[in-house]
Amino acid sequence: VKRVRTHHLRQWKNEGQKWPMLTAYDQYAAQVFDEAGIPVLLVGDSASNNVFGNETSLPVTVDELIPLVRAVTRSAHRALVVADLPFGSYQGSPQQAFDTAVGFMKEANAHAVKLEGGLPMVPQVQLLTDAGIPVMAHIGFTPQSEHNLGGYRVQGRGDAAQRMVDEAVALQDAGAFAVVMEMVPSPVAAEVTKALDIPTIGIGAGPDCDAQVLVWQDMMGLRTGKAPRFVKRYADLHGTMLDAARTYAEDVATGAFPAPEHTFDS
Ligand code: KIV
Ligand code: NA
């Protein structure tokens, strides 16, 4: 299988071919999604609240994410694997972003990195891409800035719409190969998508983005409770796993497991 490259994503945009992205944090998720033909896998800092049990994405560290990225790059043979730079590991300076990104490339074999932010991150994007590291940008609602943005809120309404277009164009000009847009009104996301030569990847950004992304535990129903409006549930893994665990527990208690076919003769 040939590895998906950033130029394929741009080609698909030109051909009007929409594509899916999913998060992945371990071997089996990476293998299954790769087999399903998902062309881009993101080892998100959402591992913070989907792997490590935190409430937000803020606490997760580079040292925690590196082994997850390594597992995914080892397991996905076709997908382009993007490592998300965690909070505090790149905002300080372009040099800091460079050092962090190099760690993900050298120690975990990442194919690209993602970072959150608009105009203030242009120098970071510029330095990384100049150094040969593909960068995916992320604008709109950026979870690492939750406290500055005043919680989970749609971004880019009203006057902020034109600013979002300008921001996206600046990130493209700095060298970004794609832009994630999170919780952006559909018409604004459509305008940004039209203004850019590079693909836009929406999450709560409507149907006109070039691509879509979801956190896999959300879309497969492993996470329970109220999901954001932009999540569509494609499976009930929580229910499936709960049933399996309960049935197993019952079988052990009753002696139904292990049966003769699971045991060894002398
Ligand atoms: O960390 C993450 O999962 C993300 C996607 C939702 C875009 O940044
Ligand atoms: Na993220």
UniProtKB/TrEMBL annotation:
**Which CDD domains does UniProt cross-reference here?**
KPHMT-like (cd06557)
GO process annotations (BP): methylation; pantothenate biosynthetic process
Q: Which residues form a coiled coil?
A: none
Q: Name one Pfam family in it.
A: Pantoate_transf
Q: What is its EC number?
A: 2.1.2.11
Keyword annotations for this protein? Cytoplasm, Magnesium, Metal-binding, Methyltransferase, Pantothenate biosynthesis, Transferase
Record localization: Cytoplasm
Q: Which InterPro entries match?
A: Pantoate_hydroxy_MeTrfase (IPR003700), Pyrv/PenolPyrv_kinase-like_dom (IPR015813), Pyrv_kinase-like_dom_sf (IPR040442)
Its annotated function is as follows: Catalyzes the reversible reaction in which hydroxymethyl group from 5,10-methylenetetrahydrofolate is transferred onto alpha-ketoisovalerate to form ketopantoate.
What does the record note on quaternary structure? Homodecamer; pentamer of dimers.
What is the name of the protein in this document?
Answer: 3-methyl-2-oxobutanoate hydroxymethyltransferase
In which organism is this protein found? Aeromicrobium terrae
Gene name?
A: panB
